[in-house]
Amino acid sequence: MPPKRKAAVVTVEKVEEIDGSGDAKKTKTTKRGAVAEPAKTSRATKKTVSHDEPEEMPIKDVKEKVAKDTKKTKKADKPKETTDETSKTDDKDIKKTKKAAEPEEASEEATNKTNAKDTKKNKKAAEPKEKKEPVKTSSRATKKPVSYNEAEEKPKKVVKEKVAKVDKKIKNAAEPKEASDELKNKTETHWDEVKFTTNKKNNKGESANLTITTWNVDGLRAWLKKGGLSILDACKPDILCLQETKVGDDKLPEEVKNVAGYHTHWCASQKTGYAGVGLLTREKPISCCYGIGDEEQDEDGRCIIAEFEGFYVVAVYVPNAGRKLVTLPRRLEWNEAFKSRVLELNKKKPVIVCGDMNVAHQEVDLANPKTNKKNAGFTQEERDGMTDLLAGGYVDVHRSLYPDQRDVYTFWTYLSNSRAKNVGWRLDYFLVHESLMDNVCDIITHKNVFGSDHCPLTLFINI
Fold first, then answer.
1. Which of 67, 212, 395, 426 has most Cβ atoms within 10 angstroms of its Cβ?
2. Residue 332 and residue 457 in one domain
3. 190 assigned to a ligand binding site
4. How does pLDDT run across 332-369, given as a tens digit for each residue?
5. 332 shares its domain with 222
6. Overall average pLDDT of the 437-453 stretch
7. In this UniProt entry, which residues are annotated as the site Important for catalytic activity (predicted)?
8. pLDDT at 369
């Protein structure tokens, strides 16, 4: 039984040791203090419990714990572990007490330990919070507007220089833009404004008695819709050669099956919507031959050979080397076969070759030679092919009559408004045998005739 309480003294029995039999030795401890504070002292003491100095607690609690520990010891037959079990139980109670509520008056040592643990647990969480302090966040938020404002507030000198550069560009581009507006996206030709005649005479002093016009129409049906056939009334050519008709004989539009005043001849590709050439003549040819005599090459319908009284006309659409030069080998084979055929014809009568040769022979024959040396139409192999043909006794009429003339092209891609900017290629030619060159009066490139990505050109000759 605990001793009677006095006004200012509290007497508590203290368990010093537990022997093997489970009996506890009891000692009395007297503490002075206020009667209302034992609970606080008990809580503070629990945090400093150790195996060497057991916690002081009311004897009633001690008896209950001793009874529990004794029961556990008897079941396990391990009396020596009783002290450890008691300590573990005490530790669990301490943890529960910490979670329930922190002591109001803890000892300095216990407080330090608790603070140390809290510091470790919160260390990782505390660091990012420090990085996201209001001041730093505010600083980051102001970075963008600060840099933006700085960019706006440039020195007056820099602003003036930029304005001057812009003005210069506008000034330089002003005249070309006006020219571009006249040509941009035009498909309708003002035929009455196009020149289809010449007053020039040949080296013999003779005026032209024969006109031959050639035109790559890039699709016969589309060309007709754009009014291309009007060239017959405007130009009145004696012979009209058309390339890239892209239509089979059985699908010819009615407008070109029977053309008043002309004999029509068509050579179509076996592939639908591909290649194809046509020939319209006022005078009926003595004979017409379709192809160059090479069975494989002639499948594409690229050539018509018309024989007249004193000459041959060869209307031709030369194969393109293709993107990434995939068909360059076939193109080179064509060059050899075509050259052989033309030289063979020339043994009988002089030959006039006209059409889309698909090559810019010299650098002057295209707007951007440096950037196109490895592109179809300007590879060294294709240019050499043209050189070989000319070496066989043929003359490039345009370059012969106008050796220094530049910026004269016959083809412009539809991309980037190239025609309006005159960024083009000279791919269409008249080649005559040198024996006929003295008979040539003139050649005109009709750059203002629309309806295709190529423009027509006309040869004036006396023969």
1. 426
2. yes
3. no
4. 999 999 999 999 999 999 999 999 999 999 999 999 99
5. yes
6. 97
7. 428
8. 97
Does 276 share its domain with 424? yes
Q: What is the token pair recorded at 354?
A: 């006209």
Among the residue ranges 132-136, 287-291, 337-341, the one predicted with the least confidence is 132-136
Average pLDDT, the chain: 78
Active site members:
317, 356, 454
Instruction: Report the candidate in 293, 285, 288, 319 with the shortest Cα–Cα distance to residue 305.
Output: 288
Contact 320, 377 (CB under 8 A): yes
Dist CA 251 CA 409 (whole Å): 32
CB atoms within 10 A of CB 161: 12
Question: Does 375 carry a binding-site annotation?
Answer: no
DSSP output for 412-460: --SGGGHHHHT--B--EEEEEEGGGGGGEEEEEE-TT--SSSB--EEEE
Asked whether residue 81 carries a pLDDT value surpassing 70, the answer given is: no
Q: Is 244 assigned to a binding site?
A: yes
- CA 287, distance to chain mean position in Å, is 53
How many domains are contained in the chain?
A: 2
- The pLDDT assigned to 151 comes to 46
Question: Is 237 domain-assigned?
Answer: yes
Tell whether 214 and 100 lie within a shared domain: no
Lowest-confidence segment of 79-88, 167-176, 226-235, 309-318 by average pLDDT: 79-88
More confident: 58 or 102: 58
The response to whether 417 counts as a known ligand-binding position is no
In this structure, the answer to whether residues 341 and 262 fall within a common structural domain is: yes
Domain assignment of residue 38, given as a range: 9-127
Cross-strand pairs, 458: 213, 444
CA 65, distance to chain mean position in Å, is 81
- Model pLDDT, residue 164: 76
Judge whether 3 lies within some domain: no
The answer to whether the Cα torsion of 16, 19, 22, 23 is positive or negative is: negative
